[in-house]
Amino acid sequence: MTGERLGPDPTTQVTAVILAGGMSRRMGGQDKGLIELAGRPMAAHIHRAIAPQVHAVMINANRNLDAYAALGTTVVPDTLTGFQGPLAGMASGLRAAHTDWILTLPCDSPFVPPDMADRMCAALLDQAADLAVASDGQRLQPVFALLSRSLLPSLDAFLGEGERKIDRWFARHRMATVSFAVHPDAFINVNTPEQRAAVEAQLGTAL
Description:
Helix content: 25-40%
CATH superfamily: Spore Coat Polysaccharide Biosynthesis Protein SpsA, Chain A
Strand order of the largest sheet: 5-4-1-6-8-7-9
Structural class: alpha/beta
Number of domains: 1
Largest sheet: 7 strands, mixed
Shape: globular
């Protein structure tokens, strides 16, 4: 186990980090977290869903920082230049968080389960793990991860080696897998204009 002890209440020990630092190539280079869905930016849907579950929320972004700040939360850019991927965002979140743990989520999956943080924390404790990663019941969803701040030196070293593969870094630590098969929409994401239209219609029905 890592140095910090995780208690049963994530609202006291966990900061959510919404990862919005990518280039969104399949969306024509648009800043995906700011694309509107059902009348609000995509990142705002994730913020609204995860905020009641954790102590604090921040957004990892590398563009349009003022627009993200307008959503009412701290914005943390990557310390590595050149859009280095989700691990770089995780490292920035670990470095900036004031809690011992962070829960990372992508900016393009708006159907966040209401028990996401609770279940991630419970699985990490039950499995005596260093980190927890969500699964859809069949495959890992690696950007949905619960990480201890004590993992930052390991992650910095991994990135310093030129590594960027998220599963290779996870493999260096004891990992709990958390199935969210009971929430089939949890990992629906928006990578294309067609997916955006479908998700927007689904959100409109849910709101």
